[in-house]
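Q: What structure does this chain adopt?
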Amino acid sequence: MDHIDRWNILKPDQVAVVLPDRTVTYRELATLVSRGSGALAGFGVKPGDRVAVSVHNDLASLVALWAVPRMGATVVAVNPRLDHRQTTVQLDLVDPALVLGSDMLTGRTTHATESLFDGRPSMPHPHAPDDLHSVFFTSGSTAEPKGVRLTWGNHEASATASATVQPVGPDDSWLAVLPLFHLGGFAITYRMFRAGGSVVLEPSYDAVRAAELMDTVSYASVVPTMLTTLLAARPTPFAGPSKAVLIGGGPVSDELVANAWDAGLPVVATYGLTETGSQVAAVPPADPGAGAVLLEGVAIEAGTAESPSAVRISGPMVSAGYWGEPDRAEWLETRDLGYLDENGHLHIIGRSDDVIISGGENIHPAEVEAALDALAMVTASAVFGVADELWGERVEAAVVLSDPTVTPEELATAAKESLADFKIPKGWHVVDELPLGPTGKVDKQALIDRAASEPGAEKT
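A:
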């Protein structure tokens, strides 16, 4: 029995999902998921098979994400925005028995996701904690995405750990504007269905709409760019029942967190990866500079403030490995650079594979972005390296300005207050907004490509 079936017994009339045009109770959702499992069996899917789903933020995709594991198969969440080549690479990797989603032109056996609604009710397939539940792909912003294998036990451990810092119950609701094909989006549904709460599911992110919903929900999950636009869309303070707004998916400036708190949003900066089943550490709301406290069951190894190192993570929520690769050892070796302070709190300073080497100096973009974002004249920034004959790599920045009259020289002068000279960008690109990838993170490759085609970027 999964959590949806359990709450169908305990509180069948409790609202499970809030959509823009309707609500769905646990009785209705349990029926749809049961029918979905039956439909999959009718399509010839067997326990142990993989079923790829082109996941949208809609009821049909939500049902599919829960119906596939319920009948003993493994659900493979696929981003519908991928092009044909990228989709083919992922499907060839996992070799699914079936594809759900009519927009996936792959030449494979495909059914519309909505066809799951027409199946016959079915009994759930028994599962153990070590049974494979799902495959979620990493964001793959700088390389081909990898399929992360996640078990029932991984998801349960992640939700359990999350509940120790964000306790949820039947009276709570969680705004889901992150895409469900991303683990951060799916994890919301697991946490809430485990607790008998409600998922407020939006088809896409709209800042004005999200600002309105923030007055009605207990929790929300966003990435930094979403929080920035959310605050801009609301000139008056938020006064809703929000207990916490989780923010992750990239570096978060202390100023952004402070601005959110000033606006009435209790922001909690979190750290996690697809490989760890979602968040594994969270920054105490009362002290954003204190570093992230490890969630229950999580063990982390990292360097010191004087000598940061790659972060290593262990715990029951950590995936055993990627699809097509052998199980890893006990520790997950990340590419995040960080350190543990004297209190055991985690500080992330950047990515080991995101280091700009300019003139022999190592420069972490996250550090430069934090300094730029702290400037009143900068609304948002992204820092990246561009090939340079003299320097090896040249530090450049794309910035969204609060004052369009600000010059690169003024930006560089202001940045000198907190950055060494060699860390200050040598090229500036003023943009209306930062380009985002499918998971809401800044698409730095798009910025690098743009910089390569704009040799006339303003230099300092």
